[in-house]
């Protein structure tokens, strides 16, 4: 049978802490489990450190809650804007009105500075730039979110402050009719892996409306 060691003595704990004076600093949350108060002598320095640890933990929790609330409010705003835009799509009687609606409504989204419906059959610098991206960034997918290099950005939008982009093809996968283009000054606003639930629903509705207007 194996011989198990008995519980540590007070002297062993004391010796260990003497040999490792920074042990509690390296393991601050251990302080939360210690009773450091003395009714006659008041709170020693360790108790003050415990209070500081609790205060920092509370501040971190408050920060996390504030971030969650802000994120929820932003999602609600995005949902309302996309829902209103989808409703108004069916009031547009031509592609020009549709393009104006998308530009006006969706640039109200947080950190979205530009939104355009680009007709791929147009003879314009922007249409040529988007067509080039269709054969590169959109080659294996109907959507792309992320940054673009200088050559790819050329002719895409006039605003040189735009740092991240999102593009979604509309129509047949092999021969799309148009691309919905978003651009943001924020470098990480559009990034690979970002969710696209709301915009996917809009793209589906937009494709149907374009078919009716064709």
Summarize this structure briefly.
This is DUF484 domain-containing protein. With 214 residues, the chain is of the alpha+beta class.
Overall description:
This protein has 214 residues and is α+β, with helices and mostly antiparallel strands. It has 2 domains: 9-89, no CATH class; 93-213, Beta-Lactamase (2-Layer Sandwich), CATH 3.30.450.40. Helix content is 48%, strand content 13%. It contains 7 helices and 4 strands; from the N terminus they run H-H-H-H-E-H-E-H-E-E-H. The protein has helices at 10-19, 23-26, 45-89, 95-106, 125-134, 150-153, 197-213; strands at 114-119, 143-146, 164-171, 176-184. The chain has a 4-stranded antiparallel sheet, sandwiched between helices. Strand 3 (164-171) and strand 4 form a beta hairpin. The radius of gyration is 29 Å and the shape is elongated. It starts with 9 loop residues before the first helix and ends with a helix. The model has no long low-confidence stretch (mean pLDDT 87).
Low-pLDDT stretches? none
User: How many β-strands, per DSSP?
Assistant: 4
Largest sheet: 4 strands, antiparallel
Range of helix content: 40-55%
What's the CATH class label of the largest domain? Alpha Beta
Number of helices, where a helix is a run of at least 4 consecutive DSSP H or I residues: 7
Oligomer: single chain
Structural class: alpha+beta
Q: Which architecture of the largest domain per CATH?
A: 2-Layer Sandwich
Which geometry do the CA atoms define? elongated
Percentage of residues in strands: 5-15%
Name the average pLDDT.
Answer: 87
- According to CATH, the fold-level topology of the largest domain is Beta-Lactamase
């Amino acid at each position: 049978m194996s011989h198990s060691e008995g519980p540590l003595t007070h002297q062993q704990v004391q010796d260990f802490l003497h040999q490792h004076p920074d042990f509690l600093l390296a393991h601050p949350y251990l302080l939360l489990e210690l009773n450091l108060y003395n009714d006659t002598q008041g709170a020693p320095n360790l108790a003050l450190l415990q209070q500081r640890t609790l205060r920092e933990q509370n501040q971190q929790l408050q920060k996390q809650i504030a971030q969650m609330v802000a994120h929820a409010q932003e999602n609600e705003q995005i949902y309302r804007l996309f829902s209103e835009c989808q409703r108004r799509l069916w009031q547009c009687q031509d592609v020009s009105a549709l393009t104006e609606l998308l530009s006006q409504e969706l640039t109200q989204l947080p950190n979205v500075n530009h939104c355009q419906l680009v007709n791929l059959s147009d003879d314009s610098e922007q249409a040529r730039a988007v067509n080039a991206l269709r054969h590169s960034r959109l080659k294996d997918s109907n959507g792309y979110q992320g940054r673009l290099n200088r050559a790819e950005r050329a002719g895409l939008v006039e605003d040189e402050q735009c740092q991240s982009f999102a593009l979604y093809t509309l129509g047949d996968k092999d021969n799309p009719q148009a691309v919905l283009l978003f651009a943001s000054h924020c470098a990480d606003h559009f990034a690979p892996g970002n969710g696209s639930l709301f915009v996917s629903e809009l793209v589906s509705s937009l494709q149907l409306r374009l078919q009716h207007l064709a």
